[in-house]
Amino acid sequence: MASPTQTKSDSGAEKYADINWDELGFDLVPADYMYVTKCDKEENFTTEVGNIIPYANIAISPFAGILNYGQIGAERLCMPSPSIEHFVEAVKQTVLANKHWVPPPGKGSLYVRPLLIGSGPVLSLVTAPEISFLIYACPVGNYHKGPLNLLVEDKTHRATPGGTGDIKTITNYSPVYKAIAQAKARGFSDVLFLDAGNVISTPAICGTILPGITRKSIIEIALGFGYQVEERVIPLVDLFDVDEVFCTGTAVVVSPVASITYGDKRIEYKTGAETVSKKLYDMLTGIQTGRIEDKMGWTVEID
Ligand SMILES: *Cc1c(COP(=O)(O)O)cnc(C)c1O
Predict the structure, then answer these.
(1) Residue 171: beta bridge partners?
(2) Tell me, what's the pLDDT at 155?
(3) Per-residue pLDDT tens over the stretch 38-97
(4) Long-range contacts of 262-267 (CB under 8 A, 24+ apart)
């Protein structure tokens, strides 16, 4: 499954896996090892039981909570979760085990995916008896190949107040595949779902927006640059009147939006070199890659 690798010893002679790093896209290239641990629903995860094992399919019951009821998402979905220390330790172990899959500087990133699932079998609507926590990884290049052209979707809703739009659940994505596929067929890059100068506005976190770590990091970086950041309800009409629009997330980092189309109205935005989004992107990736000194205390050395 995993591509052949050259690093079989610790000599460091072959630092990188044998793939074409110049053509790294957003395709599935599983790194060699994954971290796996389990716990009983009544218990908490402990660091002693976790293991690094070769990347492989996992076996779960067809009755697994995750498959039948979509149980992924910690407290809100009634599952125990690892402590922050356990999480960080498990990520370190996964990255170290896969170190030759960390792309050479400038070629991409190692996308680390943690997954918490109700893996035990259930028949009724209750927490699965067994919860699994896995971390696996995949080297990736850029998710989007340039600025985004978005289509405003006003019929399908991605999230509703009181729902689960603000947590990492399995339902965040497949319910919108259809809207995205239809927008892509019309030539757009993605869909903008409606929600609810030196000012950067982001929708307030009130049940439909996931308080992502990238969003949070970008807010802090923007404040550091002296921008005023407001978290508020953003009416659609406000989008007709701004200079720049961008999206954030671990996978997309900071992605500039080139245009938004609503019905037959299309608004274009500034993208490219002299933009705020570029400045924020450069700062965040600079800190991530060690090019810029991390004054935020966000980076962790693992080796
Ligand atoms: C994962 C996710 C994000 C991005 O969060 P990050 O922590 O920045 O990766 C944003 N919105 C939704 C709905 C998500 O599932």
Answers:
(1) none
(2) 78
(3) 999 999 998 878 999 999 999 999 999 999 988 998 988 899 999 999 999 999 999 999
(4) 262/151, 262/152, 262/154, 262/236, 263/152, 265/240, 267/239, 267/240
Instruction: State how far the Cα of 152 lies from the Cα of 236, in Å rounded to an integer.
Output: 9
Within 8 A by CB and 6+ apart from 94, the residues are: 33, 34, 35, 52, 112, 135, 136, 137
User: How many Å apart are CA 259 and CA 267, to the nearest integer?
Assistant: 5
Cα separation of 202 and 229, whole Å? Answer: 8
User: To which H or E segment does residue 286 belong?
Assistant: helix 276-289
Q: What is the pLDDT of residues 103-154, one digit of tens each?
A: 999 899 999 999 999 999 999 889 999 999 999 999 999 777 788 899 988 7
Which of ligand 1's atoms lies nearest the C-alpha of 166?
13
pTM: 0.74
Mutate to test the pocket of ligand 1, among 171, 250, 288 (most ligand atoms within 8 A of CB): 250
Helix (H, G, I), strand (E, B) or coil at 201: strand
**In sequence order, what DSSP letters do the residues of 27-73 get, joined into one string?**
-----SEEEEEEEETTS---GGG-EEEE-------TTBHHHHH---S
- Quote the CA–CA distance of 139 and 31 in Å, as a whole number: 7
Cβ 281 vs Cβ 248: under 8 Å:
no
Alpha-carbon distance of 180 to 216, in angstroms, equals: 25
- Residue whose CA lies nearest to ligand 1 atom number 9: 250
Told to judge if 168 belongs to the known catalytic residues of this protein, a careful annotator would answer yes
